[in-house]
Amino acid sequence: MKQAGLLKKIIEAIKDLISEATLDCDENGIHLQAMDSSHVSLVTFYLKSNLFELYRCEKKLSLGINIVSMAKILKCGMNDDTLILEASDPGDLLNFRFESRRGHKVGSFELRLMNLDMERLSIPDTEYSCIIEMACAEFSKVCHDLFTIGDSITIKCGKQGVNFITLGDLGTGNVRLKLGTTVNDNDEDAFAIKINISKSLSLTFSLRYLIYFTKASTLSNTVILYMGEEVPLSKIFINSIHF
Amino acid sequence: MKQAGLLKKIIEAIKDLISEATLDCDENGIHLQAMDSSHVSLVTFYLKSNLFELYRCEKKLSLGINIVSMAKILKCGMNDDTLILEASDPGDLLNFRFESRRGHKVGSFELRLMNLDMERLSIPDTEYSCIIEMACAEFSKVCHDLFTIGDSITIKCGKQGVNFITLGDLGTGNVRLKLGTTVNDNDEDAFAIKINISKSLSLTFSLRYLIYFTKASTLSNTVILYMGEEVPLSKIFINSIHF
Amino acid sequence: MKQAGLLKKIIEAIKDLISEATLDCDENGIHLQAMDSSHVSLVTFYLKSNLFELYRCEKKLSLGINIVSMAKILKCGMNDDTLILEASDPGDLLNFRFESRRGHKVGSFELRLMNLDMERLSIPDTEYSCIIEMACAEFSKVCHDLFTIGDSITIKCGKQGVNFITLGDLGTGNVRLKLGTTVNDNDEDAFAIKINISKSLSLTFSLRYLIYFTKASTLSNTVILYMGEEVPLSKIFINSIHF
């Protein structure tokens, strides 16, 4: 991996939400899927093999990881260090090797693996009646602002814009983002919010979890919210990074 | 109000000192007067109607405010948002509406009002034998430095300068600011301290309260201390901002 | 003393490790030697008289100092203030006088002295089989990184480089610094590590104490580790500053 910083950012983003997870490795890449301890939210990420300078996986391997410990080890590397991950089968260790740009420093760390019984959930493809795209920073600010007032947030989506509404002891809060307004004259791509909607809807979420999700803002500039009334769990995707 | 940031700064400056207060609104502006919960200090501020781009108050209205809640709502706005405050009579809500510069975002917040029994104190005009003007930053540093040593501060004012004195378990501290010294060659207005004195005096204050007062340093560059022996309570004014 | 900031940095660096110490003053300078409260580490520093613009000491004087209180007083000065230290014999006070550059402000502080029974240890001159020189920042990062994994650190020194090794519940960490690699092309003096070795060795230390020592990184760019197997206590010197 050319940049140790990327994996560090990913693990930092999820470590407050999930403490343990399985890294499923096959010849195509590394897949992680985990629910938080209260089974409210589901985290998945997929590091494709072409994200790595060199990727080799001879047989499928599932590595049970303590995410907090992995975050500690990743902090020991510099962001622009080259990172080499190694595990053998059978084996109970995942090796991290950080090589500095200048070649003067090599950090080798071994992380003890855990035996985790994790069932991989298969998520049915669903149609979402409302898809919202906005800047991560804006989404993060709205969630943090409203969290000072209430515990839950109602996202009300119509063709002209989106309202984020909360209710608390001190009063109420309602932030409206209008469709199609450019927020930055110099940048043609800058927009307040993009909406792809087939039916207006209004859904309520726990703000605490949304704030966990906003930690992934370090990974992307925009967030896409997929919402549908008929599905048990609405999805919120932080945009993936493409190389 | 053109700049939501101003009201935010004011409320931030007082929220650690007073938790509840009444905003008295009439056709000339908004007046706040409140004592802290220990009845040691008195906070007043006056937002004149011309500070607002548009100000309308058809009848006198007293709004009982939870200052901490109001600070939370004000934090939800950006400093350069336009802020619209609205209350109706009868009514138990104060509405805050933040409109972003670009027009893409509108935040509407309702703050529940409280019934507060507040008597408005009338403060007799008094003559102060000693008036000191100095930079807020310098006053703040002196108070914070001496607070690491003792709990109270004696301000001793003479024609040549001012001494700030404290006494604690570890020893003593005495900071002297000399009259008439320029602290910055490039700026003719830069001065260490200005003193207007009719009689030397020495007064002792609780440092904890002075440190609360220094939070208003965000509002002004200079602070004026009005001190008089004969008055029960010496006044410390943070300079008002003029528009 | 021309720069109050220097003494502030020194005291800040040691105040978490030792709470009380004796300043031994004679005509040549001020000497401090103190063990931490667990008697694991020994701190010494020596301020030579030529470090001061003016230095006068008519008879030997030992001043028992509460280091935490002294740190509080030193924080009351600005880094570029002139600092005048005064003590008389007999006397139970150490006076600090900070004079601002512009002359507008004088801070006078008195620190109460303590009666401390301190024996001055004489440290025998020893030969060290391994002397390592490296950047303070690098040493500090290695110690902090490994402290997230384990409590102790093994420093293993050979002719080709140095390994810093730790072991914890989550796994192991091993950071290797290679000899002779330049870390910065523009600066000829920049190097990863310099080693002066007569015999390979491997010694284990408490990371907690090494991290206390790294607080002295504000005083110097490089650290020199003196290690020898036969000596009960290996020395770690943070490079002294020369004027």
TrEMBL record, chains A, B, C:
Gene3D superfamilies membership: DNA Polymerase III, subunit A, domain 2
Classification via SUPFAM superfamilies: DNA clamp (SSF55979)
Name this protein carries in UniProt: DNA sliding clamp PCNA
Residues covered by the Proliferating cell nuclear antigen PCNA N-terminal domain: 1-118
PANTHER family: PROLIFERATING CELL NUCLEAR ANTIGEN
GO MF annotation: an example: DNA polymerase processivity factor activity
Annotated localization: Nucleus
Family statement drawn from the similarity comment of this UniProt entry: Belongs to the PCNA family.
Species classification: Eukaryota, Metazoa, Spiralia, Gnathifera, Rotifera
GO BP: leading strand elongation; mismatch repair; regulation of DNA replication; translesion synthesis
One GO location term (cellular component): PCNA complex
Residues covered by the Proliferating cell nuclear antigen PCNA C-terminal domain: 123-234
Organism: Brachionus plicatilis (Marine rotifer)
UniProt feature coiled coil, ranges: none
Alphabetical list of Pfam families matching this protein: PCNA_C, PCNA_N
Alphabetized UniProt keyword annotations: DNA replication, DNA-binding, Nucleus
